[in-house]
Fold:
Amino acid sequence: MLGDDYFYNGFKRSEFGKAYGLEKLGVENAGVFFTRGVLIDVAGFRGVGRMAVGAVVTVKDLEGALKQQGVDVREGDAVLLRTGHGQLWMKNNELFSRGEPGLGMAAARWLCARKIVLVGSDTWATEVVPSEKKERPFEVHQWLLVRQGTYNLENLDLETLARDRVYEFAFVFAPLRLKGATGSPGNPVAVK
Structure:
């Protein structure tokens, strides 16, 4: 029997989670994302090429980078965070997999208060790993997805956008319509 895990809007998994997927909230219901995208280059703001594993992205980082870049975050935006961690992929997979820099809870709350629709990053979990509270791993995921209904994209290649200082763009992402799935691969596109 499935437990009473809760999903966005208070749905209980025991009421709609079946052996072949979810009967509600499946990714097939997400539709196409076509919105304003904002890159927040946190590594650039900190003056580093790559943030260290376990470095927490703070509200101060978000506000400082946005001010430095001359952009803001608006309702309905897709916000992409560059930590530089993605540069390790296929070059140093051991370090890439060991942990990652990423969003802390305060920064996740700050983003959600602006009513964004999606947060993405160049890391495999978007949030800091190890987590800020060792006893509460992946708390940012729970906040974004379950509590706020904010979508999450991971392992994005943001290096070209950062190098070219493209901080605002049209963001397009069409998840595969996988019935009952909780996520989907795809090819997100930034159009300047």
In short: Residues 32-191 form a domain with the Glucose Oxidase; domain 1 fold (CATH 3.50.30.50). The chain has one domain: 32-191. The chain is about 25% helix and 20% strand.
